[in-house]
């Protein structure tokens, strides 16, 4: 599929015609200084040419004929990078008048970005009305942030009224480089813990645990977090109050100070890291100090995110600075040896990445944690997202009954654990068969003992396994006083432990407690029929009497030994008012596969 990718910046326009599958660029345009004197365009990497364009719409209209001129260009769709999707847009979405209106309403959260993104959307829809157009949101990758990472410690009523929470940005880049890092390492992304560092004029870091973003440095706006070209990053709020009082600034003045006159520019007098490094090498102490502050802040976030995830498998550098500055990578990587991440200086100096060679390993051989340089390609990521949106509606061709069942708290035990809890030589006693072939509920029960409280009479599910696993709900988690991550069954590394008590004794687990990620069991034949694959993530819409809701992040699990059924935990079942086993059907929607419960 050929996709025109439009990326409107404050005074720039990037436009690429790409093949969505392999990312091959058929044509491209880079327009700079829109709204300023001396607007110019570079076509396909050529020299700058003067351009008559007073705004983004005029710039797109001027370059579009040249983008479509090369032989073989036959556009199928248009994709737009949009900075802020708010709470409404957690996935790419096909654009219509209603979507335009909602993007416009989100302008208050990104006043420097969303209005300009919307101008590009409207210009492209006027110029190419026959083509489908898709918005891809920078915030979408961070929609998986858990509530504890989303929240600011402000009065709850104020936060809810104004929509104050942490959204994160650069998500298209973070998602792209995380996937490329996993491919390079030969691992499933859902088994990795990554810290991705997007370092450019705008900078952000993200903690990507098992395929999901669980922390990121930017917040409600792109101002929070790392030191950037002209943005301050983290600042004590008390400092802002003091500046307002002393300088007599209004809101607009403070906004300009933090977004346009701070960061590297405020520290060193230069906003471009290349200039800062050049001056630092020449002995400029102000530049050297600014460089130290910049790298210290990145290193601090890397360490913090490794702590949040309980370790790290790879640290990824991307963006203009991350990909091109060996000096910044060197400074950031200092003192990270305790994480098992050690930089190889020769590899670091020699590292070059591009579309043909997108990943370079700059860590010492056989290091426990890898340090990677990965070329970001946001345009290619947008093009792939567009293809996914436009193709997914036709993935499911027929509806079929599916059961939706509540999986209450339970434990899986090893043979050794069974003997420790119930006595030497004891074997599990089946009470009734469960829906998944070969599994059964047992007569045996255990007590869970956490730091705060106990849960008695917890079911044991057989047969025995190689590792003990405890599956609880969020309510159980708070009751026990443990912080259990949301994981798929069997994914236990780095999880908290708990004490089990049986009639013959106690057993303390160092790990194994999870909140099971909501999932659908399928056979390979089921998956082929529904057009999904193992580990696909879908949305599930439940149509209940007065309690309709949509479950996101539902994992498809495929195995010949499974029976077709969706599992949710007790909290989720109560929220949807599911009583016992509930019938459902898979149906296609405009942008993803949904499971919809049938009334009656």
Q: What's this, in brief?
A:
With 600 residues, this protein is of the alpha/beta class.
Description:
With 600 residues, this protein is of the alpha/beta class. It folds into 3 domains: 2-137, ATPase, nucleotide binding domain (Nucleotidyltransferase, domain 5); 171-381, 2-Layer Sandwich (Nucleotidyltransferase, domain 5), CATH 3.30.420.40; 408-516, no CATH class. Helix content is 31%, strand content 26%. It has 19 helices and 30 strands. The strands form 4 sheets. Strands 16, 17, 18, 19, 20, 21, 22, 23 and 24 form a 9-stranded mixed beta sheet that branches. An 8-stranded mixed beta sheet has the order 5-4-3-2-1-6-8-7, with helices on both faces. Helix 1 (56-68) packs across helix 3, helix 10 crosses helix 11 (285-309) and helix 11 crosses helix 13 (326-333). The radius of gyration is 26 Å and the shape is globular.
Q: What's the topology here?
A:
Elements: E1 2-8, E2 13-19, E3 25-32, E4 40-43, E5 49-50, H1 56-68, E6 77-82, E7 93-94, H2 97-105, H3 114-127, E8 133-137, H4 147-150, H5 156-162, H6 171-185, E9 193-199, E10 203-209, E11 212-216, H7 237-247, H8 251-260, H9 263-268, H10 273-281, H11 285-309, E12 314-318, H12 319-324, H13 326-333, H14 345-350, E13 359-361, E14 370-374, H15 378-392, E15 401-406, E16 410-412, H16 415-422, E17 430-433, E18 440-449, E19 454-462, E20 469-471, H17 474-480, E21 486-487, E22 499-502, E23 505-508, E24 513-516, E25 519-522, H18 524-530, E26 537-542, E27 549-558, E28 565-568, H19 570-575, E29 582-588, E30 593-597
Parallel strand pairs: 1-6, 6-8, 9-12, 12-14, 15-28, 16-19, 20-24, 21-24, 25-27
Antiparallel strand pairs: 1-2, 2-3, 3-4, 4-5, 7-8, 9-10, 10-11, 13-14, 15-29, 16-20, 17-18, 18-19, 18-22, 22-23, 25-28, 26-27, 29-30
